[in-house]
Design goal:
The complex is a heterodimer of chains A (109) and B (114). With 109 residues, chain A is an all-beta fold. Chain A has no helices and eleven strands. In chain A, the strands form two sheets. In chain A, strands 2, 4, 5, 9, 10 and 11 form a six-stranded mixed β-sheet that branches. Classes of the chains: A mainly beta (109), B mainly beta (114). The interface between A and B is medium-sized, with 23 and 21 residues.
């Protein structure tokens, strides 16, 4: 079966750095996505990786290792508004998105 | 403003009743999707449509039906055959951004069956 694992919940301090990990086992791989979802709202796109390495976008970076089936999302200079769930999704060989359950990130002052 | 709208935001129904969730987009996207989100689980695909008058079942289509008569609209009907319909329902459409197909989501409808 296809599986994506993320920690259920993480806590970090305002101004700090946090790394959210995602491991996957899917039938094929055609890219990995990170989305942010505030409670009760729509997920919004953060980043995309298809090749190994680091993609940087302002305070957010995402890393991919296809051989290890592993990705992480790195959030720097945390702000209170970053409190949200972060969803990892992999596009499989049928070009369908397989979604992780999400990591709820709690930011404390 | 271009975007995806879902209505209503909150919906309550009695057990045994069918209910239709609305999804409209003015982004001119061909592909549209319906997902269900439950606590502690990833988004699960119910149905998707890549073109008008055509749609395919996703992983959890049982108890649901859809139609795609217009490019802008992709309504989802939750029938009485769906055993556990209480959930947060998300509609999405996709667009090619560079060389990546990105999905964009509507605000969601929270359905509670009493």
């Amino acid at each position: 079966g296809q599986n994506i694992d993320q920690p259920t919940e993480m806590t970090a301090t305002e101004g700090a750095i946090v790394q959210i990990n995602c491991t996957y086992q899917t039938s094929g791989f055609n890219g990995l996505f990170w989305y942010q979802q505030h409670a009760g709202e729509a997920p919004t796109f953060l980043s995309y990786n298809v090749l190994d390495g680091l993609e940087e976008k302002g305070r957010f970076s995402s890393f991919l290792s296809r051989s290890k089936g592993y990705s992480y999302l790195l959030l720097k200079e945390l702000q209170m508004k970053d409190s949200a769930s972060y969803l990892c999704a992999v596009r499989d060989s049928n070009y369908q998105l397989i979604w992780g359950a999400g990591t709820k990130l709690i930011i404390k002052p | 403003d271009g975007g995806i709208t879902q209505s209503p935001k909150y919906l309550f129904r009695k057990e045994g009743q069918n209910v239709t969730l609305s999804c409209e987009q003015n982004l001119n996207h061909d592909a549209m999707y319906w997902y269900r989100q439950d606590p502690g689980q990833g988004l699960r695909l119910i149905y998707y449509s890549q073109i008008v008058n055509d749609f395919q079942k996703g992983d959890i289509a049982e108890g649901y039906s859809v139609s795609r008569e217009k490019k802008e609209s992709f309504p989802l009907t939750v029938t009485s055959a769906q055993k556990n319909p209480t959930a947060f329902y998300l509609c999405a459409s996709s667009q090619l951004a560079g060389d990546v197909w990105l999905q964009f989501f509507g605000p969601g409808t929270r359905l509670t069956v009493l």
